[in-house]
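Quick one, T. Sequence first:
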Amino acid sequence: MLSEFALAGIYMPPFFFYACVTIPVYLIMRSLLARSGLLRRVWHPALFEFAVSLILLAALILYL
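Structure tokens:
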């Protein structure tokens, strides 16, 4: 697990790092889901995308 790190003299929590790493992965996953047509088939696309982003974030935290 990471500890706090300094960014321009400001201590940032590890969650900030995890979220920044997750964003590009999420954007790629979102484009793949949109191209496959899965986002049109779910009941609430925004809620589904939010759940996917949380799953990716949790997987990254558990992996690191």
